[in-house]
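2024-03-11 09:14:02 DEBUG pipeline.ingest accepted 1 chain
2024-03-11 09:14:02 DEBUG pipeline.ingest length=316
2024-03-11 09:14:03 DEBUG pipeline.predict start
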Amino acid sequence: MSSPTNSRPARKAVIPVAGMGTRFLPATKAVPKELLPVVDRPALQYIVEESARAGLAEVLMVTGRGKAAIEDFFDRTPELEAALEKKGDQARIDAVAESTDVAQVHFVRQGEAKGLGHAVLQAASFVGDEPFAVLLGDDLIDARDLLLEQMLAVQAEHGGCVVALLDVGAENIDKYGCVAVDDAPQTGAGDTDSAADTVVRITGMVEKPKKEEAPSSLAIIGRYVLAPEIFDAIRATPPGRGGEIQLTDAILALLEQGVPVHGVVFSGRRYDTGDKLDYLKAVVRLAVEREDLGPALRPWLRSFVGDLPPEGASQA
């Protein structure tokens, strides 16, 4: 089976948000991890804004038990807006309204946590017969780096599926889904932009391989642009690693059927909010570049770092 260039562009995005966020307990006992603040906005708002910037203004969030707060966040809050208006606080009114105005957000419940592939399958009726994007909430992509836009362009040109890749080094590849690639770089979409990331044709995929068995050091990170054929592939995919239905297994099945799968090797700014240490780094990195926070935060950071004891020294 082959997948020619699609006549219809992608218009919709799917964001799975059903995870329990156990790495951030006890904070996530009552608050969904996707709503933990990154500076002054939830991580999830960054993801929705990225989708809208790329032209995907219809977003489906696949939720689960205990995630009602996410629906509340993207809903209007007339009482709060009225209270702020009474105070004449237009800046905060605009900030509150921004989360509801940025995109048209829909919700569906996953029901059972059977893996990423199963979560994506819940979007079948929402997506229909057209390509779509999947954005995972742990990966924040800097707004200045147009990764999703390039992936959409590659998919529009080549058809099939496109995944985002990051070179994590051979020593870390066993933590990720890994790809084998054709040695010849692909030409076409994005090549007119000198800052475009490398596009490769994927020939194989494996989930969390042993370091010595990994076909490359290129890891799949949390951005996908998928052909609608992925839904049939997921339905035919048995549970894999961890007893879950893996999205990578379904993409591999399409690849084996002749559907083209490409990767965009990302070289820009990525902030990982799925790990406590990396979450703290993401907050600092984003805050220092804010016009309202950076001028005061940067000198404080320099002073703070200068006062730190040498590595290994005891701290009072």
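2024-03-11 09:14:41 DEBUG pipeline.report Residues 1-5, 190-194 have pLDDT under 50 and may be disordered.
2024-03-11 09:14:41 DEBUG pipeline.predict end
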